[in-house]
Every structure is written in structure tokens, then in C-alpha cells.
């Protein structure tokens, strides 16, 4: 799965910008990245939401234990990979039918967080139990919300393309070719929200997430660490 977003939606992480400057390497544009994904993962679905947001996904090489799904409701676009172990209970909590799947559940959870949730985002994401990674884009507010499960069971990476778009994908090699050293593994147990202060740990919401520049020999530009907790972004 792949999602790319312009600087008008999300500010590129400074540590990844610096990593790309410190160790210059070949990069491609966001459009070229999407085209490469669509060709390599054919048959694939490509959804251009606007000039600022583009999704692409495919079921090629999909694990039957960690399926991918995509949905749109009320101008909220969501791409989800994985499974929720407590999906049944969450359906009841959000008033959904028994046929609602994970991607629809995440859209409803995001809507509750945006419109009426009486508790912080860390509680909303923290109540999701299972193996997952997802990317939500709210077209009505140009808001991005991204999260990964607490153990990093579903790989998720982010990087910066040649034209400054921030890209999220479950394939590190795909992003490496487009982002060079401006690339990192998305930290497990964390969420990123353009509307709620950037990158935060939902397991330890009071602990700051910091970025550590990676050694030159690593393919990553940085590693993200939750302060005060022995939690590092994992590589796959």
C-alpha cells in the first residue's frame, strides 16, 4: 500500500530532510513513485484524491493473515493493512453493523475523534488491538492521521520524495528508490496527526518521540525512539 501527500498537507520530518541532505542519493518524484507502484503491483488501484493526496494499493503478495483494504466515506479516505482482534467489541462501541470490516471501523473511530470524542487520540488508537497499520486522509480538512500497532507487526515506512511529498508504504524497497536516505521505519505504538501535534506515542502519551540520525551505512536516515521507554522503530 502507498500514500503520498504534499507539503500542503504534512510538513516533511526535518530529520529526514537533513538525512537526505547529509547523504545525497537518487530520488524520484511522488508521481513517479505512484507510477512505479502501479506497474510493479498490477493489478493495482490508484486513487488521486487531489493534487495534495494520492493513494495506491494492491492485493498482490498480500498475506491472508494481514489483508489490505481501502474505503471512502464522507470524504474520509482510509487504507488499512492487518486485522483487529477486538473488531467485534469495537463494532458495538461505534454502533456499526456486524458486516463492518477494519477499514470502516477506523473511519468511524477517526470521525468520533474528530467530531465528538470525549477522550484523547491516544485512547482511540490504544483501544485497537491486533496487527495493523493505517493511513487516513480527511479531504474536508486536509488532515492526515497515520498509526501502527504497538509491536510493529505490520511494516510501515515513511520518506520524502524528490519533490517534497511525504510517502507512506509497507514496502521499504519501494520507498528507498524514491526517497533515498530520506527514509525511516514508522515507529511502532505511535500515531502521526497533522491536527494533533505530529508524531506521538499512544502507549506512553506523556513520553516524547525523538529522532536519532542513523549511521551512514544504514539504509535509514533516522530511527525514532520513545523517550523513557525501550521502544524503537523496527525494521523488516
UniProtKB/TrEMBL annotation:
Superkingdom field: Eukaryota
Name by which UniProt lists this protein: Stem-specific protein TSJT1
InterPro entries with a match to the protein in the record: DUF3700 (IPR024286), Ntn_hydrolases_N (IPR029055), TSJT1-like (IPR044828)
Domain DUF3700: 2-226
PANTHER family: ALUMINUM INDUCED PROTEIN WITH YGL AND LRDR MOTIFS (PTHR45952:SF5)
Residue spans crossing the bilayer: none
SMART domains reported in the protein's UniProt record: DUF3700
Organism: Acorus gramineus
Pfam families reported in the protein's UniProt record: DUF3700
Gene3D superfamilies: Glutamine Phosphoribosylpyrophosphate, subunit 1, domain 1 (3.60.20.10)
Coiled coil: none
